[in-house]
Design brief:
Strand content: under 5%
Distance between the termini: 30 Å
Strand order of the largest sheet: 1-2
Structural class: mainly alpha
Helix content: over 70%
Radius of gyration: 21 Å
Largest sheet: 2 strands, antiparallel
Amino acid sequence: LFKPVSQTLSMVAAFARLSMIMVMAVNILINVMPLIMLNDAAGYGDDQLALLTGTLFKAHAYGVYVWGILFGLHLLALGYLVIKSGYVPQVLGWMMLIGSFGYTIEGLSKITAIRADLIVTLDIGLLTIVTIGELSFVLWLLFKGLKINGTPQGNPVAQPA
């Protein structure tokens, strides 16, 4: 869709999206592992089992933060592409571009264990902006459609001869 705007940034957005999928696929496996361990608990003491399952749940949480960083990169590229394309209102692109830093800041601050009230407040504001921008973008595409050069995009309907 955005290849005419910038092939490189379109690929960056697509690669970031694909990377997010891979991270979440591994993350789902990590989240299921405690259930497997509980079913096959032979040989583990209660303390060991609690420690191992707790560690896996914590690893899952960190996987979500890594996903958030990649999602931030995706939204940064997508927001820029939306702004430059002129296909949809630029304000939606700006909301995604600016708000993308919310996911990135959240992921980096959680992974590095940096805790500051300013970061939390900034993060909440940015995530609010990006959520409104993302939902508005989807609704725009669903209800308004996409018109490029004055023609609706999609598969052309075959005209009877």
